[in-house]
Q: What sequence folds into this?
């Protein structure tokens, strides 16, 4: 029997499903604690619910970029085989960029899930990054890129179309400061970033570009890391109003609220399971359920609800549980 992924997603099935949270850390002790927390939550949730991205851009002390890149490579190599670990290098225009890539990808590329490239302005920047990664032996390594300026937002669709780009993140603070004071600093807050029209427009443009090309849109940080309620509201709005399927964390306390905000609700999981079970019984032909017509277009949506539930550690109804196993191949690596 065909797996629902193959029936409903087709070529999209090969793009994989990224965890809903991407956690950044740049200090050695925090890197170690983050990797330990990833393993701890994986045991609790039954799935790896966040990536750990080791940070060279903000983590490296000035003048010690080479040493920090070596530390990141060592940390990635020393992570557990099942860990989901990535790295953020310096921007392509930075003097340390190529050295970062040679060290981190050259030594630990086989252990990385992706490489984050910040301050991408154009497809040419993506091509330059991909060439450097390939030269270091990372030909199969996906690129995540950080869009942080008005001009980069303007080119979001072109950037998303590049085959090596797996995800685009929005850089809120750099985007605001790039406007020369035309956007107030309140737009960098947990609430204000959802109120200013230029910021919201940029977020929507990135989300639309990603969905147009089957890539993952990743929402920006909330810097008020001690305000759990503000983070929760921001994550919910990013997921439910702006079309984001992933979000950055900059403090361990932000991880659980992000996972909870992006996880489907219990009633949505039950409804999705009911419809997928009925669709399978009909061999994926159209059906009428409670007076509403459903076909493969809606089946695809409900299947993706179940995938997101699985990846966020939610309990699945018995009728669909057999489609999900912890040892199934990772679509990203096929």
A:
């Amino acid at each position: 029997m065909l797996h629902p992924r193959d029936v409903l997603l087709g070529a999209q099935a090969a793009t994989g499903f990224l965890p809903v949270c991407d956690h950044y850390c740049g200090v050695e002790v925090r890197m170690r604690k983050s990797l330990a927390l990833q393993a701890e939550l994986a045991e609790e949730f039954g799935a790896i619910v966040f990536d750990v991205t080791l940070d060279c851009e903000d983590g490296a002390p000035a003048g010690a970029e080479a040493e920090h890149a070596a530390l990141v490579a060592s940390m990635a190599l020393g992570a557990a085989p099942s860990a989901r670990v990535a790295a953020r290098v310096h921007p392509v225009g930075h003097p340390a960029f190529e050295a970062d890539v040679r060290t981190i990808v050259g030594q630990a590329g086989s252990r990385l899930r992706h490489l984050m490239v910040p301050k991408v302005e154009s497809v040419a920047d993506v091509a330059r990054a991909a060439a450097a990664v390939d030269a270091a032996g990372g030909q199969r390594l996906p690129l995540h890129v950080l869009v942080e300026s008005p001009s980069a937002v303007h080119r979001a669709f072109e950037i998303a179309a590049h085959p090596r780009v797996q995800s685009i993140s929005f850089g809120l603070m750099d985007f605001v400061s790039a406007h020369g004071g035309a956007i107030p600093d309140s737009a960098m807050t947990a609430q204000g970033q959802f109120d200013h029209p230029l910021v919201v427009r940029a977020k929507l443009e990135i989300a639309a570009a990603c969905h147009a090309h089957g890539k993952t849109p990743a929402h920006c940080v909330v810097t008020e890391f001690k305000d759990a309620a503000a983070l929760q509201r921001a994550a919910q709005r990013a997921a439910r109003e702006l079309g984001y399927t992933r979000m950055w964390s900059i403090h361990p306390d932000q991880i659980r609220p992000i996972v909870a905000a992006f996880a489907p609700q219990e009633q949505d999981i039950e409804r999705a399971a009911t419809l997928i079970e009925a669709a399978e019984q009909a061999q994926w032909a159209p059906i009428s359920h409670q007076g509403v017509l459903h076909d493969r277009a809606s089946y695809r949506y409900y299947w993706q609800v179940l995938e997101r539930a699985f990846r966020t550690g939610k309990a699945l109804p018995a009728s669909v549980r057999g489609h999900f196993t912890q040892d199934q191949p990772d679509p990203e690596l096929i």
Summary: The chain has two domains: 18-262, 266-333.
